[in-house]
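> Could you send the Thioesterase family protein prediction when you get a chance?

Sure thing. Input:
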Amino acid sequence: MRNPFRPGDNKVYVKHVTAADFARFDDGLVHAVCSTFSLAQAAEWAGRLFVLEMKEEDEEGIGTFLTINHKSPAFEGEDVVITATLKSQEGQEVICSYKAVVGERLVAEGETGQKILKKEKLARVLAPKKV
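Output:
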């Protein structure tokens, strides 16, 4: 693992909201705005942008935690700009905070954690257990 970054460095991901991002469950459409789930996935991706530049060829990142405080809606057709900020990198763990905004409107904020592991170790950890 290499780390060309310092705490405070940023990565930006832009999520364009489509109908596929709406909140839906088995009982149907909840509301026609970007779901918390979709925002969380985009936030994790924003933090992963650091991991992609840190991991070696024989390594991969895996999520360890995610917090999301959903503050306001993002509507179909809007671009949500997610800025991930590197908080720390200790050992193999990469911690980022993030803010998701549409224009000046805060849509969500929180933190993500990812760990960079050797692919072979990750394969062992994620292999189905025999009962």
